[in-house]
Amino acid sequence: MDLLSAVLAMAFGLALGAWLWTCAMALLGAERQREPLVLCTVILALVGVVFLANERWGTPPKYRADCADWRERYEDATTLLDLERARDGLREGGCSIAEA
Fold first, then answer.
1. Each residue's pLDDT tens digit, 24-52
2. Domain map of the chain by residue range?
3. CA gap 12, 2 in Å, rounded
Protein backbone atom coordinates (compact mmCIF):
# COMPACT_ATOMS: atom_id res chain seq x y z
CA MET A 1 0.00 0.00 0.00
CA ASP A 2 1.47 3.32 -1.02
CA LEU A 3 1.27 6.54 0.99
CA LEU A 4 -1.69 7.95 -0.94
CA SER A 5 -3.67 4.75 -0.40
CA ALA A 6 -2.92 4.86 3.32
CA VAL A 7 -3.98 8.51 3.58
CA LEU A 8 -7.16 7.85 1.60
CA ALA A 9 -8.00 4.81 3.73
CA MET A 10 -7.56 6.92 6.87
CA ALA A 11 -9.71 9.72 5.40
CA PHE A 12 -12.37 7.19 4.43
CA GLY A 13 -12.36 5.80 7.96
CA LEU A 14 -12.69 9.27 9.48
CA ALA A 15 -15.46 10.22 7.04
CA LEU A 16 -17.27 6.96 7.81
CA GLY A 17 -16.99 7.67 11.52
CA ALA A 18 -18.38 11.18 11.07
CA TRP A 19 -21.20 9.81 8.93
CA LEU A 20 -22.10 7.17 11.53
CA TRP A 21 -21.99 9.79 14.30
CA THR A 22 -24.26 12.09 12.32
CA CYS A 23 -26.68 9.23 11.60
CA ALA A 24 -26.73 8.33 15.30
CA MET A 25 -27.48 11.93 16.26
CA ALA A 26 -30.28 12.06 13.69
CA LEU A 27 -31.77 8.83 15.02
CA LEU A 28 -31.60 10.12 18.59
CA GLY A 29 -33.65 13.12 17.57
CA ALA A 30 -31.12 15.93 17.48
CA GLU A 31 -32.40 18.91 15.54
CA ARG A 32 -30.91 20.23 12.31
CA GLN A 33 -29.08 17.04 11.40
CA ARG A 34 -30.10 16.96 7.75
CA GLU A 35 -27.40 19.30 6.44
CA PRO A 36 -24.46 17.62 8.21
CA LEU A 37 -25.78 14.21 7.15
CA VAL A 38 -25.87 15.25 3.50
CA LEU A 39 -22.42 16.85 3.79
CA CYS A 40 -20.94 13.75 5.44
CA THR A 41 -22.53 11.53 2.80
CA VAL A 42 -21.04 13.61 -0.02
CA ILE A 43 -17.60 13.66 1.61
CA LEU A 44 -17.76 9.90 2.23
CA ALA A 45 -18.72 9.26 -1.39
CA LEU A 46 -15.98 11.54 -2.77
CA VAL A 47 -13.25 10.01 -0.61
CA GLY A 48 -14.47 6.53 -1.55
CA VAL A 49 -14.42 7.33 -5.27
CA VAL A 50 -10.91 8.82 -5.07
CA PHE A 51 -9.72 5.81 -3.05
CA LEU A 52 -11.14 3.36 -5.59
CA ALA A 53 -9.72 5.36 -8.51
CA ASN A 54 -6.30 5.37 -6.87
CA GLU A 55 -6.47 1.62 -6.33
CA ARG A 56 -7.50 1.09 -9.94
CA TRP A 57 -5.21 3.52 -11.76
CA GLY A 58 -2.59 4.34 -9.13
CA THR A 59 -1.10 0.89 -8.63
CA PRO A 60 0.29 -0.08 -12.09
CA PRO A 61 3.56 1.83 -11.58
CA LYS A 62 4.04 0.03 -8.26
CA TYR A 63 3.09 -3.26 -9.91
CA ARG A 64 5.64 -2.67 -12.67
CA ALA A 65 8.32 -1.81 -10.12
CA ASP A 66 7.61 -4.96 -8.12
CA CYS A 67 7.67 -7.10 -11.27
CA ALA A 68 10.93 -5.50 -12.36
CA ASP A 69 12.45 -6.24 -8.95
CA TRP A 70 11.38 -9.90 -9.05
CA ARG A 71 12.53 -10.21 -12.66
CA GLU A 72 15.94 -8.79 -11.70
CA ARG A 73 16.19 -11.24 -8.82
CA TYR A 74 15.27 -14.04 -11.23
CA GLU A 75 17.99 -13.02 -13.69
CA ASP A 76 20.62 -12.55 -10.97
CA ALA A 77 19.86 -15.79 -9.12
CA THR A 78 23.02 -17.73 -8.32
CA THR A 79 21.52 -20.68 -6.49
CA LEU A 80 18.54 -22.88 -7.15
CA LEU A 81 16.92 -21.57 -3.96
CA ASP A 82 17.23 -17.95 -5.16
CA LEU A 83 15.78 -18.97 -8.51
CA GLU A 84 12.79 -20.67 -6.87
CA ARG A 85 12.14 -17.69 -4.58
CA ALA A 86 12.24 -15.28 -7.50
CA ARG A 87 9.99 -17.53 -9.58
CA ASP A 88 7.51 -17.79 -6.69
CA GLY A 89 7.57 -13.99 -6.29
CA LEU A 90 6.87 -13.54 -9.99
CA ARG A 91 4.06 -16.06 -9.87
CA GLU A 92 2.44 -14.55 -6.76
CA GLY A 93 2.67 -11.07 -8.24
CA GLY A 94 1.14 -12.20 -11.52
CA CYS A 95 4.25 -11.11 -13.41
CA SER A 96 5.57 -12.60 -16.61
CA ILE A 97 9.21 -13.62 -16.79
CA ALA A 98 9.42 -12.61 -20.46
CA GLU A 99 8.32 -8.96 -19.97
CA ALA A 100 11.03 -6.38 -20.47
1. 887 887 776 677 778 888 888 888 888 88
2. 3-47, 61-93
3. 15
Residue 68 and residue 89: Cα distance in Å, rounded?
11
- Backbone angles phi and psi of 98, in degrees to 5: -80, -15
Q: What is the pTM of this model?
A: 0.49
Smallest CA-to-CA distance from 77 within 87, 62, 63 is with 87
Q: Is 15 helix (H, G, I), strand (E, B) or coil?
A: helix
The C-alpha torsion from 68 through 69 and 75 to 79, rounded to 10°, is -160
DSSP 33: -
Torsion angles phi and psi, residue 85, rounded to 5: -65, -45
